[in-house]
Amino acid sequence: MALSKRELFQKRRMRVRNKLRKVNAGRVRLSVHRSNKNISVQLIDDLAGTTLASASSLEKDLGVVGKNNIEAATKVGTAIAERAKKAGIEEAYFDRGGFLFHGKVKALADAAREAGLKI
């Protein structure tokens, strides 16, 4: 029996996360979620189980509400890097989830790197 699109996505997401956990134990995780309309990102401390900082295209102060494009992803990436610096985080590992590393996800990661976050 063929797997559904959602089941394939979940398998890909867990495969990516499990590989990253083995390599980056003890570091903060930069987790990305992309929907059809928005993109959001969180800095998560898996040891404590807490979110340290987050940014989303839904935030009005970023000025990209309702835009689901590379420009919005770039602004969200810059915002999360600034918030990470305020929280005292200099490096994190990038958890793309089940999303492919191109387009908006890549733009977000590149913007976070340019703003000073080591990924």
Automatic annotation (TrEMBL):
Pfam families, sorted: Ribosomal_L18p
GO biological process, one term: translation
Protein's UniProt keywords contain Magnesium: no
SUPFAM superfamilies named in the record: Translational machinery components (SSF53137)
Function per UniProt: This is one of the proteins that bind and probably mediate the attachment of the 5S RNA into the large ribosomal subunit, where it forms part of the central protuberance.
Description of how the protein assembles with itself and partners: Part of the 50S ribosomal subunit; part of the 5S rRNA/L5/L18/L25 subcomplex. Contacts the 5S and 23S rRNAs.
Family: Belongs to the universal ribosomal protein uL18 family.
Name of the protein described by the UniProt record: Large ribosomal subunit protein uL18
Protein species of origin: Boseongicola aestuarii
Gene label: rplR
